[in-house]
Design a protein that fits this description.
Largest sheet: 10 strands, mixed
Shape: globular
Radius of gyration: 20 Å
Helix content: 25-40%
Structural class: alpha/beta
Strand order of the largest sheet: 2-1-3-12-11-4-5-10-8-9
Oligomer: single chain
Number of helices: 11
Number of strands: 14
């Protein structure tokens, strides 16, 4: 099978971790008779340096022409002062919007080999951590109208509008319920319905969709309580579905309780099979070029791409097993190192 992958190395450690994921994909291609064609896309801070914008039109067209997108990381303090329209993060928003990628799936699973790396108490870790965060990706406050005005007294005032329509909520809710059917059949919907109108609509629509899935348990939880419950009793969660900003924050929290943010992959999907796959950590410019990055999140993101976009479940499982075998053998990168383990570099 031949597939074209738009590869975005990006900034910071992005090129290093993407290089390792490509090595794994080439091993898969050789073993299973596939051909992966890589079309490199320059996006993020490096694109600002080269083109004056974080997502040149011709680079977006490469993403649109691909079978799927594999991303390293973008951004860094070097570009903090650029206009918001061309910030490195704007490239991600632009790709998600253009490809219609409205749902982001982020698994937060504690590898048993990394139990000691979790910041939680052993008694909590022993109950297990295995949840899937389903985050709405192209609505909410990140895509709402943004305004900064200067009042008559000279004071500046800024606003960001959080907007959701019923169809946006419904489609990501269906992703959550369908995902739960393949797991432990439990969905927890996260909102702030005691304060926000958008959350009250969110809750009403999720409840309506839940009626179509009588085999799946559905409950609501306020976002602030969720933040507490993730560190108090993460084993209670199976599939967690929420809006864009809440999901952005909670998924990072969920990843850290598993021992290392460097281990967590993600997939962003829309109506078709094409998606964007990336580790959830940032560009880590402080360690870029030092061969210290953890490539596992990127490698597992490539496995998710094989599973969800290319219909290659066996190949994906082989990658996941190889990661587990490597951990079993006692190999670790610096971010999840513990006593008695063998430290590895990124490459």
């Amino acid at each position: 099978m031949k597939k074209t992958i738009a590869v975005i190395p990006g900034d910071g450690i992005g090129p290093e971790i993407i290089a390792e994921a490509r090595k794994v994909l080439e091993k898969v291609a050789a073993k299973y008779g596939h051909t992966f064609v890589y079309d490199e896309v320059i996006a993020g801070g490096c694109a600002i340096d080269q083109f004056g914008t974080s997502l040149p039109k011709e680079m977006l067209e490469k993403c649109l022409a691909s079978d799927s997108v594999l991303l390293g990381a973008v951004g860094g303090p070097k570009w903090d002062g650029v206009a918001k329209e061309i910030r490195p993060e704007a490239a991600l928003l632009g790709i998600r919007s253009a490809l219609g990628l409205y749902s982001n799936l982020r698994p937060a699973r504690l590898f048993p080999q990394l139990a000691d790396a979790s910041p939680l108490k052993p008694s909590i870790v022993a109950q297990g951590i295995d949840l899937m965060m389903v985050r709405e990706l192209i609505g909410g406050v990140y895509f709402g109208e943004k305004r900064t005005v200067t009042l008559e007294n000279g004071e500046r005032r800024a606003s960001d509008e959080m907007v959701y329509s019923e169809h946006e909520i419904e489609r990501v809710a269906r992703v959550a319920f369908e995902t739960a059917r393949k797991r432990r059949k439990k969905v927890t919907s996260i909102d702030k319905a005691n304060v926000l109108d958008s959350s009250r609509l969110w809750r009403a629509v999720v409840h309506r969709v839940a009626e179509e899935y009588p085999d799946v348990e559905c409950s609501d939880m306020l976002v602030d309580n969720t933040a507490m419950q993730l560190v108090k009793n993460p084993s209670q969660f199976d599939v967690v579905v929420t809006e864009n900003m809440f999901g952005d924050i909670l998924s990072d929290e969920a990843s850290m309780i598993t021992g290392s943010i460097g281990m967590i992959p993600s997939s962003s999907l829309g109506e078709g099979t094409r998606g964007m796959y990336e580790p959830i950590h940032g560009s880590a410019p402080d360690i870029a070029g030092q061969n210290l990055a953890n490539p596992i999140g990127t490698i597992l993101s490539a496995a998710m791409m094989l599973k969800y976009s290319f219909d290659m479940p066996e190949e994906a499982e082989r990658i996941e097993q190889a990661v587990s075998d490597t951990l079993d053998a006692g190999f670790r990168t610096a971010d999840c190192m513990s006593e008695g383990m063998t430290r590895l570099s990124c490459s």
